[in-house]
Amino acid sequence: MTRAERAQPAAWFSYLGTGERQVLLLRGLALLIVVVLHWFDRSTEGVLFGVPHMALVVLAYNALLVLLMRYVRWLRRPLNYLALDAAITTLAVYLTGGYHSSFFVLYVAVIIGVAFQLELLRTMVVTLVIGLIYVAACYVNPAGLQLAFAQYILAAKVLLLLVVALLCGLLLEQLRREQQQTAHEREQVARLQALDRLQESFVLSVSHELNTPLTCVRTAVDLLAAAGDNSPATRAELIRTMDHHVRRLEVLVGELLEITKLDAGQITLARQPTDLQQVAGRVVEALHPLALRKGQEVRLHRLDAPCPVEVDRRRIEQVLTNILSNAITFTPKQGHIEVRLAETAGGFQVSVADDGPGIAAEDQAHLFDKFYVVVNDRGLSGMGLGLYIAREIVELHGGRIWVESEVGKGSRFCFTVPASGKRVP
């Protein structure tokens, strides 16, 4: 026999799931028990069809069911084939003697299968229905029910089905809870691992961001101290260098403090009627010199009418400053940046589009997360704080913020602010 031939049975049952295979095995075991019990009960009262022959019929039914499952999707649904099993079992009980039929064992297999599919309460209800169907089958073929103890045996069998359903249901409910708890613990572990990675990235980024200006300041101080005969122009340039990097340190420390306040819920918005176009104009004007040094063009597209909103002006300026400064940083020299305002349903939208390198899809999903750092061709880019702060501020105002980007085709950052009916002073 070739290897392909040996593998053929496995391929034949490949369309069956684990649950279907377990139920199939359970059916086979129950049918074996039926045959064994028949040797201890040779009564022919009420037997309309021989037990051995009925066992062969049930076996053929199982084989046919497995075959049909390959082509009929309806039969692959567990509750559907379990309902068929219950019907075939009831027919077998009726034909092989009613209440003393050993095919009663097949009901147990059906109930165990139901318990795997339904919660405890529904399993008990289905079992009660199956028990009533079994009682009805026994009364349709009343062989032996005239005996004094027969009614008690019949009731005991129904009670046995309910006990099996209860035990299986309780056991499976416990297993489901443990599986849910395990899945929850795995999710927590995954979140903690992701947080650890973010913290490691944050520490590396903070070290990089703080070390660069500190090195520049230390170098400038050393140069001032080493040569007392520096020209006034040289000293002025060194002082400007130190001032620039000290201010940069102030911004970095300020962002860290801002994060602490946001997480603690200590940010209070000083809302006031504002024209959003004026806010955008001030930010573009403030950052225009930075763009000029890189030969970039920053254009502001205004609306014909004012954009009245009730916001914390300083905070919204901070949001737009973070977004626009990022665009200037990542857009190459001689690049183009466009700031647009648009009216939306119930508010206004501000967008900043650039023709920079773009952002990968996997980074976009986490771009506004705290401490998330994008690694580009030039290394780490920021501490992962600016966009997180922007998102928190926008959401505090009742707006939302998002990014649209494609690698190699630039990025477009947008945020919305609800409109205000108050007049702008």
Task: Please explain how this structure is put together.
The chain has 425 residues and is of the alpha+beta class. It has 12 helices and 9 strands. It folds into 3 domains: 171 residues, no CATH class; 40 residues; 147 residues, Heat Shock Protein 90 (2-Layer Sandwich), CATH 3.30.565. A 5-stranded mixed beta sheet has the order 2-4-5-9-8. The N terminus is likely disordered.
Secondary-structure map:
Blueprint: H1 3-12, H2 18-38, H3 51-69, H4 78-95, H5 105-117, H6 120-140, H7 150-226, H8 232-264, E1 272-275, H9 276-293, E2 297-301, E3 308-311, H10 313-330, E4 336-344, E5 347-354, H11 361-364, E6 374-376, E7 379-381, H12 386-396, E8 401-405, E9 411-418
Parallel strand pairs: 2-4
Antiparallel strand pairs: 1-3, 4-5, 5-9, 6-7, 8-9
